[in-house]
Structures
1.
Amino acid sequence: MALEKVEGIIGSNTYNKDRNEYTVKVEEETQVSTLVLSAATGEVLTISKEPVQVVPSEEPDLERIITRNEAIRLAKKTLSGEVQDDEFVETVDGGYYLIEIENDETDQEATIQIHAVRGDTMTVEWDN
């Protein structure tokens, strides 16, 4: 329901039992939106948005054309679920992202390697 109101990737969600509400953080390239939803009705109670501070990276971005969030979105085409970890690895051909995803409903875990220039899924390693 949160993604119907704002675009991006769900970074986290928490449930407040006392208030019977979910707090969902949705990450975009330039901002993070925090939505509070009623657990009883699904109604969005509040939306707040904060800009993302861009920290200069020491990694050269000369050839990288996809962002971390784009790599996560592409990895979630292989396995939807919660991102456990993500890492950028620099290589001579532009690098790749390693995205670890866990799906609690299906009890599946995978590490998906996404090429940072082409956006291709390079490998998928399923955890038992």
2.
Amino acid sequence: MVFLSYVTLVGTFPVVLNLNKDKNYIIILFLIIAFQIILNISTDYNLFRNENLTTNDIEFRRGNEVFQLVYFITMNVYFIYKLQTAKLLHIKEKSSKVLERLPVPLDSVKELQQLAITNNPIFLSEFRSVFPDFEIKLLELAPNMIISELEICAFVKLNITTKEIASYTKSSIRAVEGKKYRIRKKLALDKETDLYVYINKI
């Protein structure tokens, strides 16, 4: 009943192969499978009877069995390769789409994060050059926001946590939380609104 394996193999073609790009390859595979099925049917699914076999018959049967074994192993390896390639391509395309949606180049964000980590005094000015409209929009929402609060908002924009902000600015966690509380109050945010989500939309 080896012929049933061919049916399942053909069924994988639309999933694993590209029907347009792999057209010639599919035709070759189909002809090989069709030959094997016809051979099995014409011999009543028993290529040779076990009795009265000549040496040539035995060699031909063994050769055919070896061919089928190699054929299926090759197909399995190839199909696994195609599936893995398709998965990696999907991940790559998804990553590209995410990067395309970023408002600024990823390298610029990483540079800003590095300036924040080292508590570099040029952090805020560099942040303004990367996000030129951010501070303007923020001040339109909360005109009474002071410079230290604007700096905290810049950290939040870069998804830096409260603990990390405290570490980078040599402040206490409570001090950072206090600034965040005042920022929320000036922005008139309710308790349900996530500050990070809100800031990242600005």
3.
Amino acid sequence: MKIYEAIFDILVKMGTATIPVIYKEMIEQQTSYLRTEEQIVEQAFIRSLISKNKEIFSLKDGIVSIRPEREPLMLTVVLYGYPGPERRIKVDFRKNSFTYFEWHLDSLSQDSFIAPQPGSVEHFKKQLYSFNCWEWQEDYQAEGIIVDGTTWSVKLETRGNKYESGGIDSFPKEWIDFCRAISTLIGKEFPCGPHA
């Protein structure tokens, strides 16, 4: 686990905290991420890490918090292409739950249903920060005429904002890792496209 993920975990649990409280919490948990290869991590390093990750953390008057516009509440992802299937996932971070829906147009589909072993919403939430969904463009379009392409949309609601992005056969650079994280969460392959 990276140190910033440990800070994130503590802030999710506590809401806000000072750097000494975050450091004390790390020591009490006897976590291995307080050690680098050569030395014990000090409070100054934690402060520096928080300052470098301003897109995630806010430090004001000595109090550290997750920036409201970055704290996810709800994520909805839709992916489809002709002849299907259409896939939808809705992750509710407040309830720590998700729903996954897959709809096939082909009535002759031979796929049998096997109940998946789902992953952790909390783990997915940590990964979500590395995908920078709030910085994705509103519209991604491939060059030229698209026939039977993969269409997708992502809606992310945070405590401070709403972000929407979508496209046809064109994706943000983080898309493949994003789809892999969804696959782990739902316990089933979530194709990356094109022609998902």
